[in-house]
TrEMBL record:
It holds the Pfam family Ank_2. This is Ankyrin repeat domain-containing protein. The keyword Glycoprotein does not apply. Gene3D superfamilies: Ankyrin repeat-containing domain (1.25.40.20). SMART domains: ANK. Keywords: ANK repeat, Repeat, Signal.
Amino acid sequence: MKKTVIILGMTFVAFASFATASSKELAIKNKIEIPAYSASPLHRAICKGDIEKVKKCIEYGADVNKISRKMTPLMLAARYNHFEIIKILLANGAKSSIVNEQGFKALDYANYAKATESIAILEKSRR
């Protein structure tokens, strides 16, 4: 009798753990992951410092003030000290006064990166 109770108990525990694991696997398999945001082609070109791609993106109508990954193209260019790209963006209507969710402007990112050329251009554009 003791053996039967022990075997039944072990079977119950094994079945319960299997059932719990199976339901977790189903929940994981049925979960659809959708990226919250992705970078625009303009943003990627700026990160790479590819001036020609930046010009092409703008030529084809990219929004120079679009916030992607919590930064505008101008903020990215300032952060990475791509001062040639900053000049292009400003010439094509980029606004240096835009504030992101963290409360930063492009000039704040340039100051953070100690990007002296970018700081000079952005301060000049404020006037």
